[in-house]
Design brief:
single chain, 197 residues, mainly alpha
Amino acid sequence: MQEAFVGNWTQESHLSAEILDSLRDLNHRFLDLTAARAMDRVAGYVAPLSATQRAAAAGCPYALFDLRFQDDGYWCSRLQTPGSWRVEDEFAADDETVNFVRLALFYAWHVASIAGLKAQLLLGMNGGTAAVFRRITVNQLPALVATEAVHLSARWNGCTAYWSALTAAASSADAAALRRVQLYGLQLAAAARLSNP
């Protein structure tokens, strides 16, 4: 069912199946991580879901995770001055979080590099953030992982209506209801783009 679902998003959005398949996999990993680590308030919605239900919820055509991608000032400063990248002595993240952030940053770099404006909708990146991601090389990504893991959160983690509706639809196995909630997420992404051009 997920392959057909992603294929349907691909036809409607003109995004490649590979970009959406990878995003779905990242979303699923993030939901699993959130449920296991109780990362933020969204964990209360995600933890009761089964693995199958989390996989269904993960099929969104946008990221369910965030690494401050909407914060142009932060990322422009962070990526334009690579000499200032330091790993904090006190920072400690578990291996699963670090591994997820490594994949998420690589995905963000890849999408920003090849898909331009689509990074803004898929990841919630502002244009300036996408531009600085395009200018760095893949060799610069590993230095970001340890320090950026602390910023990992659920996208729209303050929007309890969204997360409640998404997890309820995923647990009900009602494909039409799940699709409606996923479309609501597209509206949230578009609204964020309109408020941050």
